[in-house]
Write a structure and sequence with these properties.
heterodimer, A: 477 residues, alpha/beta, 2 domains, 16 helices, globular, B: 481 residues, alpha+beta, Arc Repressor Mutant, subunit A, three-stranded antiparallel sheet, 19% strand
Chain lengths: 477, 481
């Protein structure tokens, strides 16, 4: 059974029917995973025996007549999501042996449904970035082109067919950039739809837990399982009384897709052309395309970074060496903080903490932080206004092709890659990244953004748009 | 030069909730370190805070009890600074919008008239843990340990306007605040145990000046008495500085209880920068006007109302009512006694007198004494039943208070039963009459005081155990024949 070519539904059926046991499936997955991980550096830890035990437990359940809805489905979990069985690395060199007492809500839900965690996936320094270039354990290689980053390791795990699902965080765009760069589908949900309990967020206001899979259908099949109220995450209170989904079926009714023309002006011509093709394809499939005005992308990007840096400076303050880290004996408390924090936080995380501290300091609060809050609100209003004119809108994901693994790119260059993703994060709206086309064999994704709780519509549209199949990534063999 | 004293107080009060503010760990003292902790109050990655409604309810009750305006919309901020007892590197507090504001409470000023002390804000926040230092040894001197049992315990901070004009007013304010918090049922306010903590800001100015003088901040006072004393000490110090033509420096001072003086902790060049911003992990705090109104309606009886009721319902003198309601636990104690022994004035005398004296000596509150209301009721019943005399009862209370034994047990063990056996007493009475012929004569001559003297002699001979009424009767009968 080749995971890339079957759906989650088909795989679960096969396991429930006894065509393959969960144990056999996971054994094969782990073997495949170990081989591919050598060259691609996708995982920070691989489950091995624990995953096999879980798979056996699933098989026992099936024998007892239960029908776990995700029986035996191999899942990758980003390493900023706590999981009590494997070390939770957080993207810190000092956390390589940290066993968390917490298991993330989303992981619990998937495991309860019979899914099996294969491993923890690589991430940037303290989860801060959309490239994995700042990871303390080295970058993840793009399975489509060895010299480039994957964007997110979870996307690479799915693109290579190692796992059928990846759960990942997305603050400024990591999940979406990864899906775009690896040619898979990634969903960043509406604020409050999926519990973030167990996520070490660097930026709580914008961090969401999302799902990456090979197809929209695969995400549709599990969305309800991971959605809904969780008293441990205050933001999920919006789902306390259930979720009021906005469901529109493509083709069955008049659906308008907003096309913010000026946004695409930020792209090089060859990239822009891809989106124009998708737009025309959608039009020929019966969607109404409406050119809309969506300003404030650049301002939104800047506001995102002001807010993300300030929150990181506070969220990461707990890593002071008192309870976490190696425990240093120093002459002063100050010196202990300095040594411990230098060990726990890498260069990028330190930079962000220092900038964040500066941005919140007396005088700067009004100059930067308060202004960023205002822009945040304006961006939200812009998106809300846009959805008065259309049912959903399309945007690029990445401004550029995936960053090369070697060679210089400044942190500011990397931050500006989030031009199309960060403003969507500010809006709080759900965004689906789905394949749009290819340039020199490298996949290019697009964002479909909709009003709150329109995920099911986005997934339905996502499954009919873009190229049918981009082929297999060359490095997944 | 005569100066006007300007004092403002910042009081932290621990709320009496079941759980900590943002997790379900018990809000309770534990002698073993770090047992009342969880990933949330230890600041573990991935653990998220959730406000418990009980804390909000109590903070709301406190706000309305202090006549505050209540914000229907407020939220939590993070106050960012590093300290080992603070697990997250920030304290969750309310900085930009406090739950309560523009409140007041009333005290007597130094001239004896009623004065409103403005309360600028009442806000919710979480407590920090505690640093623990092991005694002795070089290793111990170089290391500190942290106990996070207290981390995340709900507090309210109550900040006055700079309305207090003397150290005595400050003490009266604290006593009043404590009474209100206790009556409202939101805190036990035991300063010695840290459930009420007070910092003071003090400055001097020329009477009539509008501007305030340079203030200093006082910390580490662990009793109301220490607050008063340290303020006196600091006021004197500032007067001396100003009189010598110098300027007071902006400082934080620590009260040293052993040396009875203030010691400079640090000199502040500029105000601390806590980089406060709204906590993005917590939902805003939203209340309805109805909930605030409900809190006001549900406010328990306060000290004045209770004193008034004691006068009306139990016919107590106003003085008694005032003393008994000085603290809620004393008033509760009194009323518990009454449910078992319904003679209000008798109970009042004993509670205000002997019982209070013992509490004061032992440094205890009424609810902490071994001597429970049922013991008081039993003691008073024994007097009524003439099992013991009032005088012996005092002895019994002494013993029972200290040992925790039941009054009846004390009476039995100590052989304090009253002698009401006529034949036993007659022998003693006869002896006293025989030994005091002069006194007998003067009694016969009309001096009634002489009888009292002889009763005293009999009591002395029986070590106080004789039934005084019976002795009286016997003496009269025998002398008058």
């Amino acid at each position: 059974m080749e995971l890339r070519k079957t759906t989650v539904h088909q795989t679960v059926e096969a396991v429930l029917e006894g065509e393959i046991t969960a144990h056999q499936l996971i054994e094969k997955t782990i073997k495949n995973c170990s081989v591919l991980n050598e060259g691609l550096n996708i995982f920070t830890s691989i489950a091995g025996v624990d995953a096999l035990e879980q798979a056996k437990a699933v098989d026992r359940k099936i024998k007892n007549g239960e029908k776990p809805p995700l029986a035996g489905i191999p899942v990758a979990v980003k390493d900023d999501l706590c999981y009590g069985v494997l070390p939770t690395g957080l993207g810190s060199a000092a956390f390589n042996e940290f066993m968390s007492p917490v298991t993330a809500a989303v992981v619990e839900r998937l495991m309860d449904a019979g899914a099996v965690v294969i491993g923890k996936t690589n991430l940037d320094d303290m989860g801060q970035g959309s490239t994995t270039l700042s990871s303390p354990t080295g970058s993840t290689v793009n399975p489509w082109q060895a010299g480039r980053t994957a964007g997110s390791a979870g996307a690479a795990a799915v693109a290579t067919g190692i796992c059928m699902l990846a759960v990942e965080s997305d603050s400024g765009g990591a999940l979406r950039q990864g899906a775009s760069h690896c040619g898979v589908v990634g969903l960043r949900p509406t604020t409050g739809r999926i519990s973030r309990y167990g996520l070490n967020a660097h930026c709580s206001s914008f961090a969401r837990v999302g799902v990456t899979a090979f197809s929209s259908e695969n995400i549709s099949g599990i969305l309800d399982l991971v959605s809904g109220f969780d008293q441990r995450d205050a933001a999920t209170a919006v789902c306390r009384e259930g979720i009021s989904e906005i469901i529109k079926t493509p083709g069955s009714e008049d659906m308008t897709i907003g096309y913010p023309v000026t946004a695409f002006d930020h792209l090089e011509p060859d990239l822009r052309e891809i989106f124009e093709q998708v737009r025309d394809q959608l039009s020929s499939r019966g969607y109404r395309i409406k050119e809309i005005d969506l300003g404030l992308l650049r301002e939104g990007l800047q506001a995102y970074y002001v807010l993300a840096l300030t929150e990181a400076s506070s969220n990461h303050a707990r890593f002071d060496g008192i309870r976490f880290g190696k425990g240093r004996e120093t002459d002063s408390l100050e010196e202990m903080y300095r040594q411990s924090r230098s060990e726990i936080l890498g260069k990028e995380a330190r930079r962000r903490s220092i900038f964040g501290t500066f941005l919140l300091s007396k005088g700067n609060y009004d100059r930067y932080y308060r202004q960023a809050l205002k822009i945040w609100k304006l961006v939200r209003q812009h998106f809300e206004a846009a959805f008065n004119e259309c049912d959903l809108l399309m945007l690029p994901v990445a401004k550029n092709l995936p960053r090369p693994l070697k060679g210089e790119s400044s942190y500011l260059d990397q931050w500006s890659d989030d031009l199309f993703c960060a403003p969507v994060s500010l809006s709080g709206m759900p965004s689906l990244c789905a394949p749009a086309g290819q340039i020199d064999q490298l996949p290019i994704g697009m964002q479909l953004v909709g009003p709150p709780f329109s995920e099911k519509t986005l997934l339905a549209v996502g499954s009919t748009s873009g190229p049918r199949d981009m082929g297999e990534s060359p490095l997944s063999q | 030069m005569k100066y006007e004293v300007v004092i403002g107080l910042e009081v932290h009060v621990e709320l009496l909730t079941e759980c900590k503010l943002f997790c379900s760990c018990p809000n309770r003292f534990a002698s073993e370190p770090n047992v009342n902790t969880c990933p949330v109050c230890l600041g573990f990655p991935g653990a998220m805070p959730q406000m418990n409604r009980e804390s909000l309810q109590q903070a709301l009750t406190a706000s309305v009890a202090l006549n505050c305006e209540v914000a229907l919309y407020s939220y939590f901020d993070r106050k960012n600074y590093f300290y080992p007892d603070m697990p997250k590197g920030y304290q969750i507090s309310q900085y930009y919008i406090p739950l309560g504001s523009k409140g007041f409470l009333e005290i007597e000023d130094d001239q004896g008239s009623l004065k409103k002390v403005g309360i600028g804000r009442v806000h919710m926040e979480e407590d920090a843990g505690k640093l623990v230092h092991e005694a002795g040894g070089e290793a111990a001197a170089r290391s500190s340990m942290v106990d996070y049992n207290r981390a995340g315990v709900p507090l309210i901070e109550i900040v006055t306007e700079p309305d207090l004009r003397s150290s005595e007013e400050a003490r009266r304010y604290l006593e009043k605040l404590k009474s209100i918090m206790q009556y409202a049922g939101v805190s036990d306010c035991k300063m010695e145990e840290g459930s009420l903590r007070c910092d003071a800001n003090v400055s001097l100015r020329i009477p009539g000046d509008q501007a305030f003088g340079i203030k200093t901040e006082l910390k580490n006072m662990n009793s109301f008495r220490a607050v008063e004393k340290s303020l006196d000490h600091e006021i004197k110090r500032q007067v001396e500085i100003l009189n010598s033509g110098e300027k007071v420096a902006t400082q934080t001072l620590r009260w040293d209880e052993d040396k009875q003086e203030t010691i400079v902790m640090r000199v502040k060049l500029e105000a601390d920068d806590y980089r406060c911003f709204a906590d993005p992990e917590l939902a805003p705090i939203e209340l309805t006007a109805e909930e605030v109104e409900q809190a006001l309606q549900n406010l328990p009886e306060m000290a004045e109302e209770r004193a008034h009721r004691f006068v009306e319902e139990y016919g107590l003198p106003e003085y008694d009512a005032g003393v008994l309601t000085a603290s809620r636990c004393m008033a509760d104690y009194f009323e518990s006694c009454l449910t078992l022994y319904n003679k209000p004035k008798e109970v009042s005398n004993w509670v205000m007198g002997e019982f209070s004296a013992h509490l004061k000596n032992a440094g205890l509150e009424a609810d902490q004494a071994f001597f429970r209301p049922e013991d008081m009721a039993e003691l008073l019943k024994m007097i009524d039943e003439q099992v013991i005399s009032g005088k012996i009862a005092k002895k019994v209370l002494d013993k029972a208070f200290e040992s925790g034994k039941k009054p009846r047990q004390v009476v039995e063990e100590e052989g304090l039963l009253q002698i009401s056996d006529q034949s036993e007493l007659e022998a003693i009475v006869d002896q006293v009459i025989a030994e005091n012929p002069d006194t007998v004569e003067s009694y016969r001559g009309g001096k009634s005081k002489a009888l009292g003297h002889m009763v005293g002699q009999v009591m002395k001979a029986t070590r106080g155990k004789a039934n005084p009424q019976l002795v009286n009767e016997l003496l009269v009968k025998k002398i008058d024949g």
